[in-house]
Amino acid sequence: MSDPTTAARRPAWLARLASWDVAVIAIAIVVLLVASGTIDNFGTGRNYTFLLLDLLPIALMALPMTFIIVTGEIDLSVASTLGLTSAVMGSLWNSGLTIEMIIPLCIVLGAVLGAVNGFFVTVLKLPSLAVTIGTMALYRGLAFVVLGDSAVADFPGSYTSWVTGTLGGSSIPNVLIPLIVLAIVFGVVLHATPIGRGVFAAGASDTAARFAGIRTGRTKFWLYVVSGAVAGLAGVLWTLRYSSARADNGFGLELAVVAAVLLGGVSIFGGKGTLPGVLGGVVLLSALQNALRLQDVSNEALNIVTGVLLIISVLLPNILSSSRAALQRRRRRSPSRKPELSPAPSSNPER
Amino acid sequence: MNATKVAAPPPRQASPGERRSVFGTVFKARESGIVLALIVLVVFTATQNSRFLSGQSIRDILLGTAILAVLAVGQAVVMITRNIDLSVGSVLGLSAFAVGTMLRDNPGLPVIVALLAGLVVGAACGLINGAVVRFGRVPALVVTLGTLYAFRGAVYFWAGGQQINADKLPRSFLDFGDASVLGVPWLVLIAVLVMVIAGVVLRNYRGGRELYAMGSSPQAAQLVGIKVGRNTTIAFLVSGALAGLAGVLFAARFGTVDAAAGTGYELNVVAAAVVGGVAVFGGSGSVWGASLGALLLTVIGSALAVLDIDQFWQQAIVGALILLAIGADRLVAVRVAKALKKRDSHV
């Protein structure tokens, strides 16, 4: 978020500290600490377990979503992919397949659903927003076609208890381990490999990236496949956690995922963002929701918080950058002590 | 689109000779496609079950279309400017609940006051969307995705699980939802009125042409002196106000309002507009098309019920239709570009 001219004037560590993603991580930690100190039952081990279990599906889907939004695209179909995977999981279980076969099948199904998105976006070159609004409806609809409004609940106890269980009596859920592994993999790929550089380049300027030899279309296609597969995995974990395969599982969750990613400092215009920032955004969002839920605020009313956070997270960077630009103009003007005759620079942000 | 000359009459009609044939066939193809789909669907369904063309069934379809079409007209106005309003379902819910509460507490209020109140509630929501999009310079998608949940959260917060039932609403208001003039229900008349006004303004007035110009090329529109920011706000204001109006129609038709009223409508509304030929990239489309899209979606829902097909298919079909429509739109755009290139090479 810091533009080069101001950043050069400040020490590097200060510039880093002032950046959006670090700020979000700091705010998330402060919220956790304050809530633990002031809200009854927030600071208990049990609540931390629930907090982590609740943020798991959001965090999982936010990992590939970060990549996709950095390339300047979007995937609104993730929550529906989760729902369809869950419904298929239920109906496969009803048909008598073993859970060991169902789980990989469900992840493959997610990847296929993601590939459909990728095909429309990169091969037919349709706007990702419209495509994934379409598949959001299509996948959710298919989920209901597959399972209707019934629920499948009798999944094997060894699996469901592993998903809800914690590591050797601590308050850390077992499922945090795959999340941490995936987060490290995604973080390394995004920030330390040519693939990651290509993702940023595609988001900064698709044309320039293609001239530089990056196959942006292919990159985006595979990002959608990964996004679908991870949503499929989230569907499996969701189903096992609540021990309930339902077509409406994860309904509306795409908002929380997009909100967390944008809150974590990823620009909706593409080309900017960090994965640690996104994880900070996920924790901040989940901690606020958890704290409010403990205060007996209803789930539906909590949507106000998520919605407003989403809007703030796109507004604030813009306000900050334009006020920074205004400050710079004033600084540039003041030493000369002469009223400038030339018109002020255009107020349009150079994006 | 040569809509940069905003004062000029609509290009589709006025362009002479060859150009007319290119544009003429394209637009004809676009809207005739959806009419054709409608006819096939209606004929097929009617042959399977004659109940489909009964008076009551047609009436239900028209009433459902009326509410969806009012929303779709507003959505078309926003989408033409290359924006999107995903919050309409929540605005409908907020307005329906607000008007329902108002009528429950003041049973003597005339219907027109309810309609105006709905418009005002919706316009206020639209103004919030428009102001954030304009002054925050942020994409409408994110803003309205945020307000979709924020407005819905506000209704839940306000309603707190309570429901306004038909027996709490004044008789005159419920009659308004049922009554008709010369056989045409009031709701349909209002929808047609909205459609005609919006259609004429978009087609024949400077302000309307400016919206198309903005959608075709925001930079060019700014350069020729169109007040892009102001027009964007107005477009969202219109969409919000119409969603508010739709909330009143919703309350009048169903008589029961809870916090969940209109949940998920935004999908059908975007689908109706897209299926009706309003481009997601802005700059083209008409409110007639959007309304036809609304009619098609409603007929599909009704046909599924009559054909004894699971209603669960409906959402899947909506999704598939969106994909089909944007795919077809892309195809048309590519062909138009090719045709224009060919024509230019001959000149």
Secondary structure blueprint with pairings:
The complex is a heterodimer of chains A (351) and B (347).
Chain A: H1 4-9, H2 12-17, H3 20-38, H4 45-70, H5 78-94, H6 99-123, H7 128-147, H8 157-164, H9 176-192, H10 194-204, H11 206-211, H12 216-242, H13 253-263, H14 275-294, H15 299-333
Helix pairs in contact in A: 3-14, 4-9, 4-10, 4-12, 4-13, 4-14, 5-6, 5-7, 5-12, 6-7, 6-12, 8-12, 9-10, 13-14, 13-15, 14-15
Chain B: H1 11-14, H2 17-48, H3 55-80, H4 88-105, H5 111-136, H6 140-159, H7 171-178, E1 180-181, E2 184-185, H8 186-204, H9 206-216, H10 218-223, H11 228-254, H12 265-275, H13 287-306, H14 313-346
Antiparallel strand pairs in B: 1-2
Helix pairs in contact in B: 2-13, 2-14, 3-8, 3-11, 3-12, 3-13, 4-5, 4-6, 4-11, 5-6, 5-11, 7-11, 8-9, 9-11, 12-13, 12-14
Question: Sheet with the most strands of chain B?
Answer: 2 strands, antiparallel
Number of strands of chain B: 2
Shape of chain A: globular
| Shape field of chain B | globular
Q: Taking strands numbered 1, 2, ... along the chain, how are they ordered across the largest sheet of chain B?
A: 1-2
> How much of the polypeptide of chain A forms β-strand, as a percent range?
under 5%
- In sequence order, what are the helices and strands of chain B, one letter per element? HHHHHHHEEHHHHHHH
Could you say which structural class the secondary elements and strand pairing of chain A correspond to? mainly alpha
Tally of separate helices of chain B = 14
